[in-house]
Amino acid sequence: MSNTFLSPLHVQREVHGLSIVVRAAGEVDDFTVLPLRVELQTALAMATAPHPVVVDLSAVRFFGSAGLNELVRHHRAAEAVGIPLRIAAAHKAVLRPISLTGLDRVLQVWPDVEQALTAGRSAWTAC
């Protein structure tokens, strides 16, 4: 039997050309949100406008208010420097809290990472 500790939240950052993808898997709540916060801060520091930072929440099983707060905080920070912050999620665990709080009118939500990465790409070629 393995003694490997499995964190309730695993977060990693990937570079896709000039875009950054932050992937989260597990549960996002008050006790687990710190790795997501750190990776989003790093991603925004690395990002190059107008290329997006995409937050992939497709493997998140629970998304609480701490996660919502991080998305809003980083959406504002990204907006201030001209970087699109896009959310990739297509399941109820993430979409429902975003919708219930009205954040679906503020955040850019896409069904998957590929669509979030390619949205508005024709505008980038002009830059």
UniProtKB/TrEMBL annotation:
Gene3D superfamilies: STAS domain (3.30.750.24). CDD domains: STAS_anti-anti-sigma_factors (cd07043). Residues 9-120 form the STAS domain. InterPro entries: Anti-sigma_ant, STAS_dom, STAS_dom_sf. It comes from the Bacteria. Belongs to the anti-sigma-factor antagonist family. This is Anti-sigma factor antagonist.
